[in-house]
């Protein structure tokens, strides 16, 4: 392989560790709402249950095409989840606090092997980029990890107006790197969205769905596949 394209959430950064009780309590406090530990934990639980329900997933479909659309759809769902959560408290304020955590790139934790593997790819002379269905700029997360300058291109749905698994999304990512699709390995975790890369000729490596918090994601295998 001449290049690698990585998915973001669930591949390089832990999508299951974004919302934390400490982070949500801090975001709520800034907005004038005092949540205790139990309340924050419960709000996280009901928020995730709402956005990940069949209805929530259907509502979110395609919302990553723009930052404005992403915020509107997610805030609507989170407001529904927060309605009646705290008597006398405006649910929109709670929803805003949850969304602020979800969309804060510094709230996203990289897997332990993310920086080492990206650094090793760079040292091996293998250019790589990041492709993500996302509603906000993820570049600061890579900057905080100290690897932003190593990334050859960020192909983000909210900036392109495209979403995976649309072929044009992967074609745009290859164009951003300047490498043909057939010589670019795509690494992701979602068969439905990331697997779409195969339709435009990219070899695809899917990470296992099972993952353990704070443990390596298994990214080292990517270097072996790519020849790094």
Keywords:
10 helices, alpha/beta, Rossmann fold, two-stranded antiparallel ribbon, 228 residues, five-stranded parallel sheet, globular, 43% helix
Short description:
The chain has 10 helices and 7 strands. With 228 residues, the chain is of the alpha/beta class. It has 2 domains: 3-15 and 108-226, 3-Layer(aba) Sandwich (Rossmann fold); 21-106.
Q: What would you say this structure looks like, in words?
A:
This protein has 228 residues and is α/β, with parallel strands linked by helices. The protein has 10 helices and 7 strands. The strands form 2 sheets. The protein has a 5-stranded parallel beta sheet with strand order 5-4-1-6-7, sandwiched between helices. It has a two-stranded antiparallel sheet with strand order 2-3. Strand 4, helix 7 and strand 5 form a beta-alpha-beta unit. It is globular. 37% of the residues are buried.
Q: Can you lay out the helices and strands and say which pair or pack?
A:
Layout (H helix, E strand, L loop, with lengths): L2 E5 L5 E2 L6 H10 L6 H15 L2 H7 L6 H16 L8 H12 L6 E2 L3 H10 L4 E5 L6 H7 L7 E4 H4 L6 H11 L6 E5 L15 E3 L13 H7 L2
Parallel strand pairs: 1-4, 1-6, 4-5, 6-7
Antiparallel strand pairs: 2-3
Helix pairs in contact: 1-2, 1-5, 2-4, 4-5
């Amino acid at each position: 392989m001449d290049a690698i394209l990585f998915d973001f959430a669930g591949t390089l950064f832990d999508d299951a560790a974004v919302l934390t009780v400490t982070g949500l309590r801090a975001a709520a406090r800034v907005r004038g709402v005092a949540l205790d530990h139990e309340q924050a934990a419960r709000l996280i639980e009901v928020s995730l249950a709402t956005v990940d329900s069949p209805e929530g997933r259907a509502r979110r479909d395609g919302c990553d095409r723009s930052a404005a659309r992403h915020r509107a759809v997610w805030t609507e769902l989170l407001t529904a989840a927060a309605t009646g959560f705290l008597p006398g408290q405006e649910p929109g304020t709670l929803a805003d606090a949850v969304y602020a955590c979800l969309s804060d790139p510094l709230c996203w934790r990289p897997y332990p092997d993310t920086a080492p593997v990206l650094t090793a790819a760079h040292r091996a002379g293998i250019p790589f980029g990041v492709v993500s269905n996302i509603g906000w700029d993820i570049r600061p997360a890579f900057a905080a990890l100290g690897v932003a300058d190593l990334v050859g291109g960020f192909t983000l749905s909210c900036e392109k107006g495209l979403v995976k698994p649309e072929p044009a999304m992967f074609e745009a990512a290859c164009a951003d790197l300047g490498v043909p699709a057939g010589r670019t390995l795509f690494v992701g975790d979602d068969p439905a969205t990331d697997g779409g890369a195969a339709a435009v000729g990219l070899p695809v490596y899917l990470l296992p769905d099972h993952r353990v918090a704070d443990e390596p994601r298994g990214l080292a295998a990517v270097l072996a596949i790519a020849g790094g």
